[in-house]
Design goal:
- By secondary structure, the chain is an alpha/beta fold.
- It has a domain of 228 residues: 3-Layer(aba) Sandwich (Rossmann fold), CATH 3.40.50.720.
- Helices cover 41% and strands 15% of the residues.
- The protein contains twelve helices and 13 strands.
- Helix 7 links the parallel strand 5 and strand 6.
- Helix 4 runs parallel beside helix 6 and helix 6 packs parallel to helix 7.
- The N and C termini lie far apart (45 Å).
- The model has no long low-confidence stretch (mean pLDDT 95).
Length: 330
């Protein structure tokens, strides 16, 4: 696949996207449609506020209704629609939700992943590429930062464990059955379309647009990577496109701008972009079940995939703010 233009690779290609109504899924679908692919979306619940529906991109996709936790739904999606590429984003993604009730998170993130991988194994004659969205949370708490891909996956809290397990399951299918899979590990992804107001970026933007003080759940000193959703959508596609290349199949790749920030620094950046630096911040110091500091090295992705982020924080935040201004009618 090396050197093949992305549009040639994707044109007419049947791509199964799990988690298509989420923020990342919505922007990934936009990119796939732009490249003339044929997205097939596994959707559990329709969300008319999702960017997928608001943009009417959903009308250009084939929809399979059902849950990741049901193997036969996943198998039918892969088999009946003759899927060539699977991009597995579907998951329960909220750390706090997993902390309060771990079972549904384990079901969605662990069972959901082995259902996807098993359907791809069974239909190996059809499925050519599988990309599994993992997370920096899969690394758990490490003594050294930034995370690099050879580090062990040692999640301890429920959400971390669910991502460690899903990641290892994907690796198992490659090493045991040679399933053509690669794994993407990202930090905190932000962008328009994230309607979970408990997350720091959408919650802060909404509060500031409403002339309210934003709230920080932690003490403000927690460190994270932040990466714009369009960069991640293209990263997933680039990973799928290069899966036939040496050093890609069966491998995990970190995707990061390599510019970690404290939560308070991020909030201050949003305030600066909105010219609302004089508005205070409420620090709740109530975070539970969260790793204090995380950052990722993207050296492997840069070297092997030739990947780099196109959006710095300033540009990404400005696009994100514009989306929420339109969505919230400000």
């Amino acid at each position: 696949m090396e050197g093949v233009a992305m549009s040639e690779f994707w044109r007419g290609r049947r791509v199964l996207v799990t988690g298509g109504t989420g923020m990342i899924g919505s922007w990934l679908v936009k990119e796939l449609l732009q490249e003339k692919a044929m997205p097939v979306l596994l959707i559990h619940d329709a969300d008319p506020q999702s960017e997928l529906y608001r943009s009417k991109d959903v009308d250009k996709c084939c929809i399979v209704n059902g849950a990741l936790e049901d193997y036969w739904t996943v198998e039918r999606a892969v088999n009946e629609h003759e899927i060539a590429t699977v991009i597995h984003l579907g998951a329960q993604t909220i750390v706090g939700t997993a902390y309060r009730s771990p079972l549904p998170t384990f079901e969605a993130n662990i069972r959901g992943t082995y259902n996807v991988m098993e359907a791809c194994r069974v239909h190996a004659k059809v499925v050519k590429e599988v990309v599994v969205a993992s997370s920096d949370k899969a690394y758990g708490t490490q003594k050294q930062l930034p995370y690099t891909e050879e580090m062990s996956l040692i999640g301890r809290q429920p959400y971390e464990v669910s991502k460690s397990c899903a990641d290892l399951i994907a690796q198992s299918y490659f090493h045991t059955y040679q399933t053509p899979v690669a794994i993407a590990r990202c930090g905190n992804i932000y962008g328009g379309g994230d309607l979970n107001w408990n997350r720091i970026v959408p919650g802060t933007i909404r509060s500031l647009l409403q002339k309210e003080q934003p709230e920080i759940r932690s003490d403000g000193g927690y460190v994270r990577d932040y990466i714009f959703v369009k960069d991640i959508a293209r990263a997933y596609m680039q990973l799928a496109e290069q899966l036939a290349n040496d050093g890609v199949r069966g491998e995990a790749f970190n995707f990061s701008t390599e510019s970690p920030l404290t939560v308070l620094e991020l909030v201050r950046s949003i305030q600066k972009s909105l010219k609302m630096e004089d508005v205070g911040v409420r620090i709740l110091n109530q975070a539970e079940g969260e790793i204090h500091s995380q950052s990722l090295s993207a050296g492997k992705a840069k070297k092997i995939l030739g990947w780099s982020a196109n959006f710095d924080l300033h540009r990404g935040l400005n696009e994100t703010i514009d989306w929420y201004k339109a969505f919230l009618d400000f």
